[in-house]
Specification:
The protein is of the alpha/beta class. The chain is built from eight helices and ten strands. Helix 3 runs parallel beside helix 5, helix 4 packs across helix 5 and helix 5 runs parallel beside helix 6. Bound molecules: adenosine-5'-triphosphate.
């Protein structure tokens, strides 16, 4: 059953937001007790927007990303991707939706060491039962500047090159939404800029939606908007902030 997306959150073109979080909470329970990692997050991510999620350590950023990407389930509340509520889907349908409509880029590149760069990039297509076209694989490798590395294995590449392979692998299915968790966390500043430029062009050139968790104000400044989490709730947001403005907002939160 379609989840009612509040009309106020529809875009000017009448489409639902790329991603809607409606009152999500997440409580982790263990022998040590319960932790309320998210305490009611309501937020919508517009189609074609680039949003950075920032907040102090433990504020719930990774939990939010995991729930938004359907990798974990919120305790209460709804996650709606392009009008499809994730909670209504079977595991099989959720996996299909994730493979077809979501791209993932994490700090650990998660490439398969035994496969070549080409086969790592082609893998998501194979997983969705599609036959990878050489032209498509080479096109995304060219997009990330690694066409000449198609035959290499991940261990033969630098960290930045491996992250670019991970981005190519996420691009190949042309996902509606990219989820990135600290995608530049392990990289030097020049390589980080290349990665952020690639994410930026996913929104600017291809109209994809990017949601990126980061600690780095320089990285967050590539986004259209920064959303600040504090203690499991949205504490505020900043549009088109400079790195200095973003850093100042973060230190206000940490006070
Ligand atoms: N699997 C888990 N079991 C129990 N508690 C958890 C689990 N995962 C996260 N938490 C707790 O939930 C809260 C939010 O964690 P989360 O990792 O989402 O924060 P974060 O903002 O991403 O932090 P960081 O910036 O340090 O990565 C923290 O108190 C954390 O200890």
């Amino acid at each position: 059953m379609p989840h009612p997306v509040p009309p106020a959150w529809h875009q000017a073109d009448g489409r639902p937001p790329a991603l809607l979080l409606d009152g999500i909470t997440k409580t982790y329970r263990s022998k040590a007790g319960a932790v309320d990692a998210l305490r009611g997050v309501t937020y919508h991510f517009q189609q074609g927007s680039f949003t950075a999620v920032m907040g102090p350590s433990g504020s719930g950023k990774s939990t939010l990303l995991q729930c938004a990407a359907g990798l974990d389930k919120p305790t209460t509340g709804a996650v709606v991707l392009n009008g499809t509520p994730l909670h209504g889907l079977s595991e099989v349908a959720l996996t299909k939706l994730r493979r077809e409509q979501m791209g993932f880029v994490f700090q650990a590149y998660n490439l398969l060491p035994s496969l070549t760069v080409y086969d790592n990039v082609a893998l998501p297509l194979r997983l969705t039962g599609r036959r990878p076209q050489r032209r498509d694989v080479h096109q995304v490798l060219q997009q990330v500047g690694l066409e000449d590395k198609a035959g290499r294995r991940p261990a033969e590449l630098s960290g930045g090159q491996q992250q670019r392979v991970a981005i190519a692998r996420a691009l190949i299915t042309r996902p509606a939404v990219f989820f990135a968790d600290e995608p530049t966390g392990a990289l030097d500043s020049k390589t980080s800029r290349q990665i952020l430029d690639l994410l930026r062009s996913a929104t600017d050139a291809s109209g994809q939606t990017v949601v990126m968790v980061t600690h780095d104000p320089l990285a967050a400044a590539y986004a259209d908007r920064v959303v600040f989490l504090s203690d499991g709730v949205v504490a505020g947001s900043l549009d088109r902030g400079t790195p200095q403005q973003i850093a100042a907002a973060m230190s206000d939160l940490e006070r």
